[in-house]
Design goal:
single chain; mainly alpha; Four Helix Bundle (Hemerythrin (Met), subunit A); 2 domains; 8 helices; 0% strand; EC 2.1.1.100
Length: 271
């Protein structure tokens, strides 16, 4: 219910003003609530429209759960008739996107959006996964012996686990200081995180995604995409880290310099 108002002594007849600051805050909160209700009503019945609505969040989470569970079951029961690595790939991919949203929801609820799943990351991201799936299917069709499960698959799965663990640990360690986007301004509560996994490496989330993506190609036994992913990832992270560290230097000055000098990235050929 909207906060009530009353006539102020001496005020012109018919003009009503709020008595105190608390009533102003209550009115602001009420108006915000009404606006959110209006938007919610407009979005009723709409799904997969890209809007950050409860039904879209629930649907994304449900579909990711189905893909993850289905992929894991497929990998475990496929035997030798079908390539189990495809199931592990689907499981790893869906779990990655779910954990991205979960970490944002836990520690950055004010930044939470449907894009926090990172499913609609970029056309390049979609093209990279499409290329890896296409290579896997072509090679499996023409050269099925190339996809025989062996030591390389287990190495790939190990890299996927290491990469996912490093990225999730980074997000949980940084908490509200983590962002999917490089910030050009310093928020009042932004701190330079130097504890946890950040004590042993700079940019552990990038380290995690790098090895996760390389591990996926090793798991799928994709020799072409394995080489291309190494090139793409090195190029992408070289540029991104350079720009991000420029902003961190502006934000934290000597504190950042000291941290950077004593903490490596542990990414191949990226200092």
């Amino acid at each position: 219910m909207a906060p009530s108002t009353s006539d102020d002594d001496g005020a012109d007849g018919g003009i009503r003003i709020l008595r105190n600051r608390s009533e102003i805050d209550e009115l602001t909160e009420y108006n915000a609530f009404q606006e959110s209700r209006r938007k919610a009503k407009q979005s009723l019945g709409r799904i997969l429209d890209g809007e950050n609505t409860p039904q879209n969040i629930a649907l994304y989470g449900f579909l990711l759960g189905i893909i993850c569970g289905g992929g894991l079951v497929y990998a475990l029961v496929s035997g030798t008739s079908w390539p189990p690595q495809m199931g592990y790939f689907l499981c790893a991919l869906s779990l990655f996107h779910f954990l991205e949203y979960l970490a944002t929801a836990l520690f950055n609820p004010d930044k939470l959006a449907l894009d926090s799943f990172l499913i609609n990351h970029s056309p390049h991201y979609h093209a990279a996964h499409a290329a890896s799936l296409l290579e896997f299917m072509i090679e499996y069709y023409f050269f099925p012996s190339w996809k025989t499960v062996g030591m390389l698959n287990y190495i790939g799965l190990f890299l996927v686990i290491i990469g996912q663990t490093a990225r999730s640990t980074a997000m949980f360690s940084a908490r509200h200081n983590f962002s999917h986007r490089i910030m050009d301004y310093k928020a009042p509560d932004h701190q330079l995180v130097q504890h946890g996994i950040y004590r042993v490496m700079r940019h552990p989330s990038y380290f995690g995604f790098y090895w996760w993506a390389i591990g996926v190609q090793c798991l799928l036994l994709n020799p072409v995409c394995f080489g291309l992913f190494i090139y793409w990832l090195h190029h992408f992270f070289s540029e991104r880290i350079a720009y991000e560290e420029y902003t961190l230097l502006r934000f934290f000055g000597d504190e950042w310099k000291s941290y950077r000098n004593r903490t490596p990235t542990r990414l191949p050929f990226i200092q």
